[in-house]
Design a protein that fits this description.
Length: 123
């Protein structure tokens, strides 16, 4: 994805606000940065894994709790992200989390704010 929004300014806070809104959706177990960590918005000193923005749209990659309706959670996550971003948002369900199982660490996870363990969700 074209990372026009990663060059600084308001995109930095927008990516984190989107991540926070998506993580607040019941049934979203976490954000997923892709196999090689390629889905991210880069910030000074870190990144927001699982959120990629351009000037015209965005995408989020999520991990969904296996006990929930995947399509409904994806729709709610998209709506939450779009409400914050004011842009069309695409959602990819990258993984499904089993209840009580810790999420695998994201590749080169540099943003502890979006890590499930930093939020006390799973140990």
């Amino acid at each position: 994805m074209n990372d026009a929004a990663t060059s600084g300014g308001s995109a930095d806070s927008a990516a984190q606000r989107i991540a926070d809104a998506v993580l607040a959706v019941p049934g979203v177990a976490g954000l997923h940065g892709g196999v090689f960590g390629e889905i991210a918005t880069y910030l000074p000193g870190g990144r927001v894994s699982g959120v990629a923005l351009t000037d015209s749209d965005g995408e989020i990659h999520i991990v969904v709790d296996s006990t929930t309706d995947l399509l409904a959670i994806a729709d709610r996550a998209r709506d939450a992200a779009a409400a914050v971003a004011g842009l069309p948002i695409s959602v990819t369900v990258e993984d499904i989390a089993a209840p009580g199982q810790p999420l695998p660490p994201a590749p080169d996870d540099q943003n502890p704010a979006t890590s499930p363990t930093s939020r006390g969700e799973r140990s």
